[in-house]
Design a protein that fits this description.
Blueprint: E1 17-24, E2 30-37, E3 45-50, E4 55-62
Antiparallel strand pairs: 1-2, 1-4, 3-4
Bound molecules: zinc ion.
Length: 63
Amino acid sequence: MVRRGGSQSEGGPRGRRIRVALACALCGSRNYRTTRLHTESEILNLSKFCKHCNRHTRHIEGK
Ligand SMILES: [Zn+2]
């Protein structure tokens, strides 16, 4: 998992991005992963398809 000498730099000078998981609000499955700016205080809240619920549900940000 650990890469040495990678050219990718996490946490650039223009704002940190944090990785978050989007979990289905109904069944709690973490179906999606995304990144967002750390400075955005608003919790992500998106309508996504959940394969467990077999329909579009609200997905909210979780750690
Ligand atoms: Zn679900």
